[in-house]
Queue: 3 jobs
Job 1
Amino acid sequence: MDAATPAIEDTGQASEPALTLAVIMRISVNKRLKEKAREEKQQNKAQRRKERRNERDQRAPAAPGIDPDIADIVPGPQPLPDPEPE
């Protein structure tokens, strides 16, 4: 090399590969699929909430003064469970 041409210094590191159009397209498609899955999941959750709300509204109201969580519990000793068949 002569003095007129500058020397190119080699750093030893590979340059990062440029994003090709195919890679960019694949990223876009993956992103769209991910967004669609997220939207479907949100719709399913909204539908489940609506169904639970309807079931709760259709349920018969509990008698006043009775806690529905403990309505069927019998105080005192409990009967022995049936023996398991061998």
Job 2
Amino acid sequence: MRPTTLTAMTFGERLALARRRRKLTQKALAQRLGVAPSEMHRLERGLVQDPHGSRVVALAEALGVTTDYLLRGLGELPPPA
């Protein structure tokens, strides 16, 4: 069963949701950040247990959300692209 609130979602689920709201593929987001697409996959699937702070900041900036949104589910979703 899928979580119904942002705070109940995982970091990876919130990341994927924000990315899809911006109509970005994992590959496109990875290119913006200068990383391999496999890193986006690993982050969204929860295979990275403790993402580096600078990576979280870069993701938040690229997606137009706050780090609080990504890390804790606080704040608002980005508007659809």
Job 3
Amino acid sequence: MWTASLRSKPRLNTTSSLSTTAVAEIVGPHARWFHYGLTSNDVVDTAQALLIQQASLLIAGDLDRLANVLERRAWELKTLP
């Protein structure tokens, strides 16, 4: 039942569509040629690299805050046996 409903719905390659649309807004009518030199894997790989970079910055900030909290707590609790 579930697979039948999935088959009946049309699927859209949003990665390719979004990249072509975004380029078309900047480049204009020549953007249709952009697709011939770019694969959806290129778009996905680049997007993943950017997401990993952004996530790494967030994680690094959180790790810095955690290190500060742990250091402060260590100093607070240094006299406990």
